[in-house]
UniProtKB/TrEMBL annotation:
<dbReference type="InterPro" id="IPR002731">
    <property type="entry name" value="ATPase_BadF"/>
</dbReference>
<protein>
    <submittedName>
        <fullName>N-acetylglucosamine kinase</fullName>
    </submittedName>
</protein>
<dbReference type="Pfam" id="PF01869">
    <property type="entry name" value="BcrAD_BadFG"/>
</dbReference>
<keyword id="KW-0808">Transferase</keyword>
<dbReference type="GO" id="GO:0016301">
    <property type="term" value="F:kinase activity"/>
</dbReference>
<keyword id="KW-0418">Kinase</keyword>
<dbReference type="InterPro" id="IPR043129">
    <property type="entry name" value="ATPase_NBD"/>
</dbReference>
<dbReference type="InterPro" id="IPR052519">
    <property type="entry name" value="Euk-type_GlcNAc_Kinase"/>
</dbReference>
């Protein structure tokens, strides 16, 4: 029997799945941040915690693993790949080890090739051609488009400007103040910037609030979200050009918690920008979790052909949403 390990390590959570060679999920585990840029020792410990939990629920030992696929935030530069590959090998997480950036794992969860735009707590954009070339934005992607955290920071700046009269009044202001329990914009600004005391951290609720307000037609929120989406679309186009598929009918996969919100403006803004220059792109929103892409990558490393049957089994046996939920 062939046994596969897939790991998706992000800034909010790390998910591990153990599967057999047919794609059937046997065990799952979850832990915290797996990004080595937040601290190598801590990130490796979280990855190991998630894997141990997945192995335990599968009733397997690590020496049973034929291949491990690791889709990781923080797999950015050659030295990162070398470090992570060596660490996963030393931990015994597969006789074959493949490490990719988390943008590629998200892509492979929904397609065999194409472009992925990931917008969760963090953000990433990746592309893979049919002949195996791949590229991801990593630090090429500016800090203003790095996922939900960047979107939330932009929204806070927006209500500050609105309060000062630089921007028009917006319904974002009372909604965000209510979310933080703040009496005024100045009180919120003070809370977020003061030298002493706890500084509340943004959460997924703020990203959802931004999209809900934009969905009502609030002009300031609409402009914020549209500009953000168009910027993400620019990076998607850049990724497609880097691997030579911009003129092909490539799958364009949108993934990540922020992009799963039912309000359509953000997704439509990304797609509109991409289709302006790459009209043959085939848009789609991935319903699969990025860790499933890591399992696919592990299966390929083990010599397994990824066909419709494998993907059906993977989808049919995948854990429920509770494992993946983030506030």
């Amino acid at each position: 029997m062939t046994y596969l390990l897939g790991v998706d390590g992000g800034n909010t959570k790390t998910i591990a799945l153990v599967a057999d060679g047919s794609g059937r999920i046997l065990g799952a585990g979850r832990s915290g941040c797996g990004d080595i840029y937040t601290g190598e020792t801590q990130a490796l410990a979280k990855i190991a915690d998630a894997v141990r939990e997945a192995l335990a629920t599968a009733g397997l030992e690590r020496n049973a693993l034929d291949a491990g696929g690791f889709s990781l935030a923080g797999a950015d530069w050659p030295e990162d790949y070398e470090y992570l590959h060596s660490a996963m090998r030393d931990l015994g997480f597969g006789r074959q080890i493949v490490v990719v950036n988390d943008a590629i794992g998200a892509l492979r969860a929904g397609a065999d090739w194409g472009v992925s735009v990931v917008c969760g707590t963090g953000g990433a954009t990746g592309a893979q051609s049919q002949d195996g070339r791949f590229w991801h934005t990593s630090f090429w992607q500016d800090g203003q488009t790095q996922g939900g955290m960047a979107l939330q920071e932009t929204a806070l700046i927006t209500i500050n400007k609105s309060e000062l009269g630089i921007l028009s009044p917006t319904d974002l202001t009372p909604r965000i103040l209510a979310l933080y329990g703040a009496a005024s914009v100045e009180a919120l600004l003070h809370t977020l910037t003061r030298r002493h005391g706890d500084r509340p951290q943004p959460s997924g609720a703020l990203s959802r609030t931004i999209q809900e307000v934009a969905d009502t037609g609030d002009p300031v929120a609409v402009n914020l979200l549209r500009s953000y989406g168009e910027a993400l679309g620019d990076y998607a186009l850049a990724a497609a050009r880097r691997v030579g598929i911009a003129d092909q009918p490539f799958p364009l996969i949108l993934a990540g918690g922020v992009l799963r919100h039912p309000a359509p403006l953000l997704a439509h803004s990304i797609l509109g920008r991409v289709l302006e220059q790459a009209p043959r792109a085939q848009p789609g929103t991935s319903t699969r979790q990025p860790v499933e892409g890591a399992v696919v990558i592990a299966a390929e490393a083990a010599g397994i052909t990824i066909d419709a049957s494998f993907r059906r089994e993977l989808a049919h046996t995948a854990p429920g949403d509770a494992l993946f939920h983030s506030e």
